[in-house]
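Appendix B: complex inputs.
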Amino acid sequence: MGNRLKLVVAYDGAPFAGWQSQKNGNAVQDFLERAFRNILGHSVRVHGAGRTDSGVHALAQIAHADLPDRSLSAARWPAALNASLPPALRVLRCTWASATFHARFDAHGKIYRYRIWNDRILPPLEVGRAWLVPPPLTFDIMKEEAQAFLGLHDFSSFAANRGTPVEDTCRTIDRVNVRRSGHAISVEIGGDGFLYKMVRLMVGALVRVGHDPSCRGEIEKRLQFPERSPATARLVAPAAGLILVRVRY
Amino acid sequence: MGNRLKLVVAYDGAPFAGWQSQKNGNAVQDFLERAFRNILGHSVRVHGAGRTDSGVHALAQIAHADLPDRSLSAARWPAALNASLPPALRVLRCTWASATFHARFDAHGKIYRYRIWNDRILPPLEVGRAWLVPPPLTFDIMKEEAQAFLGLHDFSSFAANRGTPVEDTCRTIDRVNVRRSGHAISVEIGGDGFLYKMVRLMVGALVRVGHDPSCRGEIEKRLQFPERSPATARLVAPAAGLILVRVRY
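Resulting structure:
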């Protein structure tokens, strides 16, 4: 297979049932595979760098697909595919990758951004793009406590159960930027890998301590003693605030 | 009538048929009037500072309504109304205004912002919020030519026909900020009043000269000699890129 096409894909998560193929055909992967079928006349499997849940957005998800030939140049594939895709899903760029490239297995990490709106009312243009968290929320404490995530930790208390057990729950986080601009608070998190709902549980923990300063130190404890982490501490931030920003290779 | 309530209203223009009441009841005004009726049990007229077209957004539209009494405090009205409104429409603040305050007649001016996305593909999260204008588009020329709008001019060649003729087509523009951030170009325009589709025609003219530098000086000529303005010069920017930012009182 020497015709492996690498795709950079962006989507608004709201209208889709997440990345992974669904029976109702409403996942991002389903739309991409149907777009390939419309052009090629037969099915092609599209492999993504990682699944995103329903409602989660992507600025640059990475995927690959094996094509029968190179009769269409890589530069022409985005427009060809976009013609069969809804505006909420766009193929931004395509390039030919080596036959051994794999969107998922070759990924060295990812960067996510989470958006919080800290006010009483969610502005209409933030609907589906931010988590409304009313005051009180102490930004400085969130920023300070977020530093505990940096480094190599066992994130098992920051993971939801996906059905299949994960053997190794250790991950390295190398970037945690907590920024404020007016009512918007953004949390950018980079790491070598993420467990199921890990970013949303991390942001949930930050909002918890931002709300209630008596929770200070809780994140550090949960990372040190995951098995002693109380269920009450596990707050999952809603999907709509989450954006997959970049996949690292 | 001593119970005039002033409302600050925000909306995502996409799902509405503009501000002004429509037979199908799908205008912002219709939604607000229905929300009042749900609470009061009878109809109340809501007066806006200005009409926005279908697809145009508002960060802070101003409106007023005369209520039978003050049994509900002004501070409680936003939550009461928002309970009957879709998330794409929010009442941000309410205050009691003087009996002579009028949202439309007392407005001294408005500030609008227009968003252009200068690339080949519109990112999904920009759908309904920006005008996709592919390169070439020379930002510096747009910024320079935009200065011609400043001051008092006859804007009749930057107005669409609304059916009813406008006697005085002179308006004063006191703010024109053209900014770039990555692929996004924003045009912020402030003035003492705006004719029908005026901002969208102004932005259309800027995109025209950004595309084709030979159009330099056209804006100045159209303002000086509106009656000689060629129909081909009249490019209307789409509604989705436009936001009513603020009403001045």
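Chain B has a mean pLDDT of 96.
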